[in-house]
Amino acid sequence: MSLPTGVAAPARCVPCLKLFADTLFVDDGTRHGDEIQTAMLRLEFDYGGRKIRSTAPGMAGRDRDAELQAARVLEGLGAIELAHLDDCAVSPGSGVDYVLAVDGDVHAMCAFGAHALPQLRAMGWRVEIDPEYPWQIVPTEAPMYTSALPDPERPDWFGLELGIEIDGHRIDLLPALLELLDMAGDLTSLTRSSRRCVAVRVDERRWLPVPPARLRLLAKVLCELYREGTKVRAPAIRAPLIAELSSTLHDGTRPLRWVGDTKLREQAYAIALGPRRTAGVVAPEALCAELRPYQRDGVAWLQHLREHGAGGILADDMGLGKTLQTIAHVLIEKEQGRLVRPAMIVTLTSLIGNWQRELKRFAPTLNVAVHHGPDRHAQVPKLGTFDVIVTTYPMVTRDRDELAKLPLHLLVLDEAHAVKNYDALAAEAVRALDASNKVCLSGTPIENHLGELWSLLDFLNPGLLGHREEFSLQFRQPIEEKGDKVRLEALRDRVRPYILRRTKDVVAPELPAKTLLVNAVELSGAQRELYESIRVAAHADVRQHIKARGMAGSTIAILDALLKLRQVCCDPRLVTSEAARDVTASAKLELLLELVPNQLADGRRILIFSQFARMLGLVSEGLLAKGIGHVTLTGNTPDRQKPIDAFQNGRADVFLISLKAGGAGLNLTGADTVIHYDPWWNPAAQAQATDRAHRIGQTKPVFVHDLIVAGSVEERMLGLQRHKRKLADAILDRGGTAAGALTERDLDDLLAPLAG
Asked: CA 20 to 30 Å from 546, out of 5, 353, 510, 567?
């Protein structure tokens, strides 16, 4: 309906808001009360150039509905009307209508500036901020920046800045972020979901609002860095953190710039993202083998780490061709002119012949020297002229001083878990070698605890996981003792670029099935009585040691007790005590001597593993008594290749192997049945042994038998094996949670009476 002639239309009501700081006086029941510096609001309405306070008395032509709606909007955005605060007052004449934070919460005030004010402006409100207002928000057009520069004092480290650029000036925000995290103590309360943002101080009056979820990600990365006062630095091998920080900062609302060392940035993103698609990777021309797709990926990964100055663990399942991938890697280095110094391969003594054969078979163009045996010293002056030097851990340990003088292009540690103990002489010796690039080969980089993983990665990339004590406090104790999922995820993230792990079921689905069977037998008669008598005495002795020295100081007593019980389970003749002299029956040996003929009758070919070489001797006697021919491989076998060839060529269908001598490096795909006569703590060691048969080249289903004494220490050890497997899977296969270390409760369970 139109207005009558001569009547003017009412002026439009425009809300006007002024934001300023003042003192809020809070009556806390005491004589003096509290004085809090906080954000205040004055709400006015502009009617055609005439401003009226929201609290002013009535005036003709005011749009009360519009004013009331504006007040509702303001209160909905978190402002509190002063009139509703019975215990609060402000300075007379300050012109305050609303208060933002009664408690002076800087995060709430900055959240209002970051989120509420843009909304109000978009709705047509006029917003004025006092120039002296101490909680101003930096404009969204101000870019964030990341900078990483080599540390002038330590060239292998870099210093990091993370900041914002305002009016051409860069302001490093890391000191303020770190101070904020330190003061918060518990990030949970600081980043609770109800909070719109967390305020990070930029200067005296300006703040950067950070969403809580983004701050949690930032805190996760910052906690992984080293701090010295207000400076943040890290070893160059930790460069992937730069990429993680940059992606965490870049939320799309403001520009992000890189102003640091370009090489560091490229290294950061390259290692973090991994090698590019490898479909076009060309195998070296001189390689006498066809690489499978996953093997091409493995070679590309090795080349990628070498290009960026990092070392890695090729941790593929046993039997997936770690040796072939390594040889291809060496050949590429030679063909592209980088192998100007030798590549050294350090392996187990039992595998030195295997490396010789594989190098000759797959890379006959490589000039290979073997540093081993009594005449090795005469060849030392000429070692630098070879493409590849194959040697062993004992040789490196004995000839440490000589070999440390030899510059190497590449150092490969085969079965690298052999140096999982950082303080062992072999571990010290390989660390003394002078190599530009390093690679570890191990399907089992974590056999017992996370300290083994630290030892390998510290050899490859010093500083990646910090000092040993620091790693223990940051990762090992929280993960192994407390099952800390946050620290577990942090460790996974840190090691992910440097470990390549593929399993057979993923990359070699064509392999035939592997069936795991547990064959349990009961002890009876004199063997059972012997077990119980040794168990009771051993348990009492172990308890006494623990009471006097604690768990850590009782390791020898514990292992000795468990060894004796395991020996009774295998065969009483292994036990040296007087009580065992007259006990000759072995329930498990009887089970084996029934199982083997039945398997042979079905056309199967069998590997039998035991920890005890003496046990293999007793098994051999039993098999011969039944007329079953076989071959044997132990640490005392003079010609290792002879029994291997006899089995592979079909001259024997049963192969007795000690776990230590044959748990690694053998390719025995002629077998389709594996029998573990006695279980051991380490599931990885048994898995390695099993994979002598279940590997690339196997065409028949493989059956794996675990022989155990029911209710004994052996059956309980299978449970501990599962715990250790979880620990390795948690890091390598990104699955599950880490298990804890051996406890007194575990020990009591191991030494419990026989069931039944």
From this structure: 567
